Amino acid sequence: xPLRNLALLLLYCLVVVPAGVLARLxxxxxxxxxxxxxPSYWNDLTTAARGETRx
Length: 55
Known about the structure:
By secondary structure, this protein is mainly α. Helix content is about 55%, strand content about 0%. It is built from 2 helices and no strands. It starts with a helix and ends in a 5-residue tail after the last helix. The mean pLDDT is about 85.
């Protein structure tokens, strides 16, 4: 059992972690880059997008 755990740890450290690091270096899925020209980062939602209905 401990040998299998060690093998899984090595697989994770040698395959999964480098793949995740490379993916983050190539592409930023959350678009976290700073835009100095943007006046604001606020996303104004409409009432329809929030799911509110008019009574």
